[in-house]
Amino acid sequence: MNEIIYMKAEYEPWWMFSGWEKTIIEKNVFTTDREAKNYLDSLLTKFRNAYPNESKQKGACWAFWTEDEQQFCEACDDDLQTYHGILWLKDGKPFQL
φ, ψ for residue 39 (rounded to 5)? Predict the structure, then answer.
């Protein structure tokens, strides 16, 4: 099973901290790698056009952000960057492209 996930959090998607699933905005499931790759390519293009910063880790985890999108953290008394994460999971684990 292939899953293409869009998440939004105060950390990059490859960290997958405990409870990271609560940050999922959208999840799409595909039966074939080809279907997943086609959807992923269109989604990455959309995010690359919307956000000036991009980083990639673990083969299939992308983070997008803009310096203007931050949230104040009362517990740490500081501003935290907001990241838009895209993940390709295959059988629940990051897929290695």
Answer: -65, -45
